[in-house]
Specification:
Structural class: alpha/beta
Number of strands: 19
Helix content: 25-40%
Strand content: 25-35%
Number of helices: 13
Strand order of the largest sheet: 6-5-14-15-16-13-17
Oligomer: single chain
Shape: globular
Mean pLDDT: 95
Low-confidence stretches: none
């Protein structure tokens, strides 16, 4: 049996793929139940192909909003790179989907048998024995399992025990994420937009008929705290030179729907697996959100791991999984880190913008398709 730790996007998708392929598993999550907090996330065509394979595409699509155009712009919303997603839709069957993380989580949970998800089960440690792993939880309970799959996020407790020298990196940027309980003006409904300024940027997309997600990124020291009584005033001051839509979104968002997190990733580690234990998703390769691929790569992990196990059910497939995924994922982690640095430049922004505005559309599309391709 496979024990999955963590009911985030990676863990839930793994459970769904295993369900589809008749692979025995149990899923354990530290939270007491589904979490309604969070902000928006993009599911690119590579992620949606896995959702279709797992049989949940319609369920997920119903609670999201289709993005048919992605615009990178300057702070006044003048496009630097404008990419239609319709060619991607023709090629893969989907464009990008913007969705609230909580709605995505709930949609995935509802498609998994209740008896296979165990809530309020915080992982404590594992112990390797001759014929099985003993997995202990904070409540004092233990289970025996042949294999352990850690999908417990960037702060993975499993990774901390398996690879104690792994390190989380701070990007030098902090991010506010908000969900406004209003739709965008009609002209922006099917667009994902990111605006770059000096040491600061802002992105937005509609999530549903009644919700819009936005994010604001600023160069900052780590571990800073907000005074919520003045937070909106600070944010509107930071973005006073941006297109008026930016501060309109900030002002229309309830203060309790604005979350702050420093942007971090996992410094790439040499291996994601050891013995009968394997890390997936953010536990293995947490990435900065600059390419919209963090969740998608966790979803891809679930797909490829499940297919390998189904093809070779009587062997340990973790090393082969790592070989198949390692180069692609680390390339995306590296590219995302670099993109974040370019996006938040404090100087040379005019040159940066001029360069991006002259990149041929064919080159942009080629890079996009290389990320969207899902190859068996």
């Amino acid at each position: 049996m496979y024990t999955i730790i963590g009911a985030g996007i990676g863990g839930l998708t793994t459970a769904l793929v295993f369900e589809k392929l008749n692979i025995k598993y149990q899923l354990f999550e530290k939270a007491k139940g589904p979490n309604a907090l969070g902000a928006g996330i993009w599911l690119a065509p590579n992620a949606l192909q896995v959702m279709e394979f797992a049989g949940v595409l319609d369920t997920v699509t119903k609670v999201g909003n289709v993005v048919n155009r992605i615009t990178l712009a300057n702070q006044k919303l003048k496009p630097l790179a404008d990419s239609s997603q319709l060619p991607a839709k023709e090629k893969y069957g989907f464009s990008t989907l913007a969705i609230h993380r909580a709605k995505l989580q709930l949609a995935l949970i509802q498609s998994i048998p209740k008896e296979k998800i165990h809530w309020n089960k915080a992982f404590k440690f594992f112990k390797e024995e001759q014929d099985a792993l003993t997995i202990a939880f904070q409540d004092g309970s233990t289970i025996k399992s042949k294999y352990l799959i850690a999908a417990d996020g960037i702060d993975s407790k499993v990774r901390a025990q398996l690879f104690p020298k792994s390190k989380i990196r701070y990007s030098g940027q902090t991010c506010w994420r908000g969900v406004m309980q209003h739709p965008l003006p009609l002209e922006f409904k099917d667009r994902g937009i990111e605006m770059w300024g000096k040491g600061i940027r802002f992105g937005l997309s509609q999530l549903s008929e009644t919700e819009t997600s936005w994010f604001a990124v600023k160069n900052s020291k780590a571990f800073q705290k907000d005074d919520k009584t003045v937070l909106k005033n600070k944010l509107t001051f930071y973005f006073k030179e941006f297109h008026p839509l930016v501060n309109e979104l900030i002002n229309k968002t309830e203060i309790n729907h604005i979350l702050r997190n420093d942007i971090t990733d996992l410094k790439p580690i040499k291996s994601w697996q050891k013995g009968n234990i394997c890390l997936i998703g953010d536990a293995a390769h947490a990435t900065t959100p600059n390419m919209g691929q963090g969740g998608a790569q966790a979803i891809e992990d679930a797909y490829y791991l499940g297919k390998l196990i189904a093809k070779h059910p009587n062997k340990n497939n973790f090393e082969q999984f790592e070989k198949k995924r390692f180069k692609r994922v680390n390339s995306i982690v590296k590219q995302s880190w670099f993109t974040g640095k370019i996006a938040n430049l404090n100087t040379g922004t005019a040159i940066r913008n001029a360069i991006f505005s002259t990149i041929p559309k064919k080159m942009i599309d080629r890079n996009m398709y290389s990320v969207y391709d899902l190859k068996d």
